[in-house]
Amino acid sequence: MSKYHGEQYWAEIRHQTLQDWRGLSDDDFDTLRAIRHDREVHLRDQRARARRDRQTQRRDVEM
Questions:
Q1: CA 58, CA 55: separation in Å to the nearest integer?
Q2: Cα separation values, 6 from 10, 11, 16, 51, 53, Å
Q3: What is the pLDDT along the chain (63 residues), one digit of tens a residue?
Q4: C-alpha span between 25 and 34 (Å, rounded)
Q5: Beta carbons of 28 and 36 less than 8 angstroms apart
């Protein structure tokens, strides 16, 4: 697939998505917000865990 056709494809997907979103109810939006929030919390937890692991490894190397 050429770059041009790839961009056309994503433009079409974006257009279809925007059209489909008009049919969503408030409950659907609440569900999507909850999913996004859960994902953000999960990612923050992963970053914090990775940061703690790096700090622990640095302490081990320094000793």
A1: 5
A2: 6, 9, 15, 37, 40
A3: 566 666 787 788 778 777 777 777 888 888 888 988 999 999 999 999 999 999 988 887 776
A4: 14
A5: no
